[in-house]
Structure formats: C-alpha cells, structure tokens
Amino acid sequence: MAIDTRALQPDVVLMDIRMPVMDGLSATEILKSDVASPAVLVLTTFDTDEYLLRALRLGANGFLLKDTPPRDIIDAVKKVSDGESMLSPSAVGRLVSAWREHDSRSNPRENSLDVLTTRELEVAIAVSQGLSNAEISAHLYMSIATVKTYVSRILSKLDCANRVQIAIAVFESRPLRGM
C-alpha cells in the first residue's frame, strides 16, 4: 500500500529497509527528492555499512536498529522531528571507520568548509559533535532561533540534506583544517 506523504504531511517517516513493492532506500530517495519532504528515520534489522551509508547519502535523518529500546525510538522520532539527527551507537562507530577508510583511499579534496563564516564553522563543529540546538545555544551563547538559522545556512552552503551530512563534511575536513 502506497502512502501519499504530500497529502498526509507527516513530520517524520519511519522507514524499513526491506519492504514489499519498493525497498526503503529507494523510497527514501523518492521522499527526499521532494522539497517539502518529511524527515526520514530508518529503523531496520539490517546493520550493514552499505545500508547505513546509502541511507545517509540519500538524506535519511537517522538510522536505528530495531533492537533499540522503545523509549529511545520515541526520543529519536522527536529529535529528528526537531531537525536533529540520530544514529544507533554501532552506526556511529562504523560511519567513522568507513569515512576514515574512504579518506585514506581518496585524494584530498577541496575543503568545502571554506565557504562558512567563523561562526557558522563553530556551529558546524558543534553539530558534528552531536550537540542539540539547545546545547549549541548554551555552548555558543546564542538563542535557539539563531542556532536554527545558522544550521539552515550551513545546510544550504554545504549542500547538505541534514545534520548527519554536516557532521560528515566536518569530519572529512578535519585533516585539512587541523581540527
């Protein structure tokens, strides 16, 4: 059964990897191609690097395993709805390892963070550390509304779909910027 997200306008879609008719990654790609797309939280039993990396590249806002405690899933849905990103602990470690391996095999690329102002870079680094908007607000002495504005600018300037992609951009640039 297909669900029309344009008609229902959900804030968050919980997406499984394996579904009848269309797999969850293809569905995520279609959802995220729409300008007014909802946040996508992948909730799956398939804990593989391939699925994790593809989901994040396609714009998923989070990736959790189905063995995540129900209370944590509810918390993740709320955070993703607020514009934050959520990754299962095992996914974080694998993501860092995958990007290190990728970085060591590839040629250094142009530093995409050079387009950011100093304050935007501070916010981007805070995002990459997994801080929420409220935590960034307290840490950098700015209002939550200002943090949201900076995050929006960073997303636009770095051509990122979500906070996870900001974190990846910061991570990729660390060796180049000495962070």
UniProtKB/TrEMBL annotation:
Ranges of residues in domain Response regulatory: 1-81
Pfam families, sorted: GerE (PF00196), Response_reg (PF00072)
CDD domains: LuxR_C_like, REC_NarL-like
Claim: DNA-binding is one of the keywords in the record: yes
Keywords assigned by UniProt, alphabetized: DNA-binding, Phosphoprotein, Transcription, Transcription regulation
4-aspartylphosphate PTM positions: 16
Domain HTH luxR-type: 109-174
PANTHER family: TRANSCRIPTIONAL REGULATORY PROTEIN NARL-RELATED, TWO-COMPONENT RESPONSE REGULATOR
Protein name: Response regulator transcription factor
UniProt organism field: Rhodococcus sovatensis
